[in-house]
Design brief:
Elements lengths: L3 E5 L3 E2 L3 E2 L13 E5 L5 E13 L13 E12 L4 E12 L2
Length: 97
Amino acid sequence: GGEALVLDGHVDTAAEGPGALFHLVDLSVGDTVGLAGADGTVRRFTVTDVHAYPKATLPSDVFRPAARLVIITCGGHFNRHTLQYVDNIVAYAEPVA
């Protein structure tokens, strides 16, 4: 059990270029991710998996209650007809003790 922290953000935009999650796809298992709180504390997480899912098959499991961080952005091929990426990139990470 536990409480999941799920973050979702843009990989890029036509007007602004690379977004905050542009390099999500570059994470590897074992990398450390830090989230800074408003009070200045930093919560650290260790990446356990990075996976690409076709948008139509993003599993509901990414939202299940668990003591973990899940970060989601777009990726894969950009479809110029729909003006959307075809995949979601999802990084899973567990709290560092």
